[in-house]
Amino acid sequence: ATPLSVMVGTGKGAQAGILIRSAEALETAHELDTVVLDKTGTVTEGKPVLTNVHTADGFQESELLTLVAAAEADSEHPLAGAIVTGARDRGLTPPAASGFDSVTGKGVQATIDGHTVLVGTARLLADADIDSGALTPIAAGFSAEGKTPVLTAVDGRPAGVLAVADTIKDDSVQAIAALHRLGLQTVIITGDNARTAAAIAAQVGVHRVLAEVLPEHKADEIRRLQAEGRTVGMVGDGINDAPALAAADVGLAIGTGTDVAIEAADITLITGSLTGVVTAIQLSRATMRNIR
Ligand code: ADP
Ligand code: MG
User: Which of 30, 81, 171, 253 could cross-link with 285 by S-S, CB 3.0 to 4.6 Å?
Assistant: First the structure.
């Protein structure tokens, strides 16, 4: 594109709340055939709320929630925030943990009042040789509703499942439908479990789901799609998403997300709405039409 048409395109983008960092990004966006969307904070609001507490036999609800909230107090994961707030809202005051370890992409392990408490995915429990047993169907039920199940074990015994729900952004469904009308394939990528991801994917209508992807593997998934011959746009908000945003042909960061994601991306969507992805692609197509 000519410098003038790039200037016009960039200016129009800025007016629409789309900050385009380079001429190359504006030029490449019209070639995208696949858009990969991070789930939490990108398709959804990223403000999860604790909705359910299911206890295994022998555990009492407030007692379990107190232990779990104590274990999550030092975690920076949004799920941890939802659980700590949920406990506080129920009038509970969790004690301080005496030991704490965060297991990336899986959960946390903490020592509370001498008890070993595990909080996270079924994989976290399995890694500790704990069979989720009766918790499995409960977790599956929460997932089918699009909620994230958080499994817990205390001293090596399955203790309960909490459910955390996140709201889909108002215009996500509309924006994804618009991407399909433009002829693009859509994919949700998430560290969350496959059932929850599938339920959210069905609600918003994306073509494909990549679930249970560990943070360090998100960029690999982008490269895998590129190896299939696709030109890939990645939309994300989190620190976890930064390598994938950089690996994509065009990285688009949610403006309300983390600075790390914004710095790794080529385009920033100031309002955080996915309609910005549609506008960016339309803008690129218009820019490239003008110069030919
Ligand atoms: P995402 O934020 O996309 O869900 P993560 O890689 O951060 O991806 O986490 C993957 C999964 O690991 C989460 O969906 C959750 O089930 C579990 N997890 C991670 N951290 C925690 C935590 N602090 N407490 C409970 N579960 C967690
Ligand atoms: Mg996210």
Answer: 30
**Catalytic residue IDs:** 38
Q: CATH classification of 49-165 is 3.40.1110.10, yes or no? A: yes
Query: Taking residues 279-283, what's their average pLDDT?
Result: 97
Residue 40 CA, closest ligand 1 atom number? 3
CATH of 3-45+168-291, one of 3.40.50.300, 3.40.50.1000, 3.40.50.1760, 3.10.25.10: 3.40.50.1000
CB 55 within 8 A of CB 163: no
- pTM for the complete prediction? 0.87
pLDDT at 65 over 90: yes
The two three-digit tokens of residue 55, written as one number? 């206890």
Domains 3-45+168-291 and 49-165 share a fold: no
Percent of the chain with pLDDT over 90: 95
Report which protein residue has its CA nearest ligand 1's atom 9.
Answer: 105
* DSSP bridge pairs for 251: 234
Q: What is the number of the ligand 1 atom nearest to the C-alpha of 105?
A: 6
3-state secondary structure of 81: helix
Mutate to test the pocket of ligand 1, among 50, 121, 151 (most ligand atoms within 8 A of CB): 121
Cβ proximity of 185 and 208 under 8 Å: yes
Q: Is the ipTM of this complex over 0.90?
A: yes
| Among protein residues, the one whose CA lies closest to atom 24 of ligand 1 | 107
Burial profile 79-100: b = 16 or more Cβ within 10 angstroms, e = fewer: bbbbbbebbeeeebebeebeeb
Domain coordinates in residue numbering, the chain: 3-45+168-291, 49-165
Whether 13 contacts 21, CB under 8 Å: no
Strand, helix or coil for residue 15 = helix
